[in-house]
Amino acid sequence: xxxxxxxxxxxxxxxxxxxxxxxxxxxxxxxxxxxxxxxxxxxxxxxxxxxxxxxxxxxxxxxxxxxxxxxxxxxxxxxxxxxxxxxxxxxxxxxxxxxxxxxxxxxxxxxxxxxxxxxxxxxxxxxxxxxxxxxxxxxxxxxxxxxxxxxxxxxxxxxxxxxxxxxxxxxxxxxxxxxxxxxxxxxxxxxxxxxxxxxxxxxxxxxxxxxxxxxxxxxxxxxxxxxxxxxxxxxxxxxxxxxxxxxxxxxxxxxxxxxxxxxxxxxxxxxxxxxxxxxxxxxxxxxxxxxxxxxxxxxxxxxxxxxxxxxxxxxxxxxxxxxxxxxxxxxxxxxxxxxxxxxxxxxxxxxxxxxxxxxxxxxxxxxxxxxxxxxxxxxxxxxxxxxxxxxxxxxxxxxxxxxxxxxxxxxxxxxxxxxxxxxxxxxxxxxxxxxxxxxxxxxxxxxxxxxxxxxxxxxxxxxxxxxxxxxxxxxxxxxxxxxxxxxxxxxxxxxxxxxxxxxxxxxxxxxxxxxxxxxxxxxxxxxxxx
Amino acid sequence: xxxxxxxxxxxxxxxxxxxxxxxxxxxxxxxxxxxxxxxxxxxxxxxxxxxxxxxxxxxxxxxxxxxxxxxxxxxxxxxxxxxxxxxxxxxxxxxxxxxxxxxxxxxxxxxxxxxxxxxxxxxxxxxxxxxxxxxxxxxxxxxxxxxxxxxxxxxxxxxxxxxxxxxxxxxxxxxxxxxxxxxx
Lengths: 530, 184
Description:
The complex is a heterodimer. By secondary structure, chain A is an all-alpha fold.
């Protein structure tokens, strides 16, 4: 963890002399900016760990047959790649954004509960260590898939217990973080900062935090049931004892579908800040954006079983879940059209944050369309658990959430560090990521349509070419992210000084009222918003 | 500070909500079972339907008559039921009573015969006292089962089958009582 102190100190050290120094500044930190920084570095570290796991998967799939890893280890890699990317990389990244930005954007001095904020972050490293330690448990990591479906999970080895415990800890961290965010947004806005004047990013996080408080406990319940089935003689999911494994799927996806929006909605928020800034126009249809995001959140509780069409469901239920799922395309469409309308007749420039936001817009919409394809029952029955599904959710998770996180980091890096990143390198990072992302995942649509199942270490010979292309893309994508690390470190250590309002089109409080870098303590006297 | 109290109240509310949602996860278990029960979706929790024999030809009836003779033996030997009406393909079990009225232990062997003669191959016996020798002590009585199926390929014109058993003495066989149901 020393790396956090080392790399981030430079951004702040000439402002307030009274902050603690050394490692204790970070261990005991109650400062929302420091905690945000730690969240972001933690998430990037986990992104590399999960990325290495993805590359192990793609190495094995480079050629048909079993060359590099054993099938059990391959299963463990698919499981922990998913868990680490979702709970370790993407969610903490956006919580990092929330910590850094929400107090500054609403004119609050800090988060509502600074000590709880510290605890929320410091629960993450032990959970991550548990997930990594699970690899070395007797029998290896639990190869049950990130969804931890029963009955496989109730029969897996000791690694499963470590995983369950990690999920409990991650859940507690998320719930505490969400309580903090909701309270901050509802109670600590500066005078004049009405709800409908808040930057879109704060709105999306408010909605996300409510989703988190509602569904993380349900996931905790599901894994608790798995745990008691394993060790304490209950039969929630054990058919032999009168339970039902399909029940697990229902409980899991009651959490799992809102979880998809927990990842996507903050990404919408970041993009809703970036696109207006580089279009030099206010966000088109702000109010409709708020309502669309809220309706996506509400609908997300009503569509969970579209992940389970093939689990044996009456046709009436399939029809209901199909129509409800298709309905989500309406508010999502409202958002996409609003972003496009924001750019319409704007004075567009294409700096790196804007490029990533546009990459997001284009590829997320594509991923949304394949989602629509998968929502149709007769199609899904064919495509269920094929690479088409893998392609679909990587378009919304990687090109959606991750690209938007990159957009946000390039956008706010000048404000956070007081220094500008190298624009040329940033553009290189974007184009390399964009090309290699599509090389990796676009071909997986074809593999899925041709019937290649996911989570299997071997495949028939007819899938060989596309898998080879996909693996090459994956390595290219992974290596491109090292360029990102280099750009960020270079910015922190020797970037050019950034202006207070580095982007002329950016109009939220952190750009208009605070210098760059943002001081360690900001808005101790709340600004007055007109 | 006023703000701080409002924050704490908000934290309490949200924490209660989170705990309630944890409970909701568990409440889904009985809820799920109830839904499955009401809609009849989940047949795992229903007892399996009774197994039905699809080999039974319900379109016709066959009458089976039972006859019994004890050839030169002082045995009382007669069927419990004189006749039954069955469908071809149905599994039937009937019983015979036998009693040794003589003073000595005797081993008997029952020999079946069928009328009409050509119906013999269609009477498929699973279990019969005629499969093995039957030792009877003096004064001993027994109830003996016959289990069989009338093959559904039985010619249409056969509507009555008479099954007749005759007991003969088996000379020189051991008359010791059989243990554990006998060895055949």
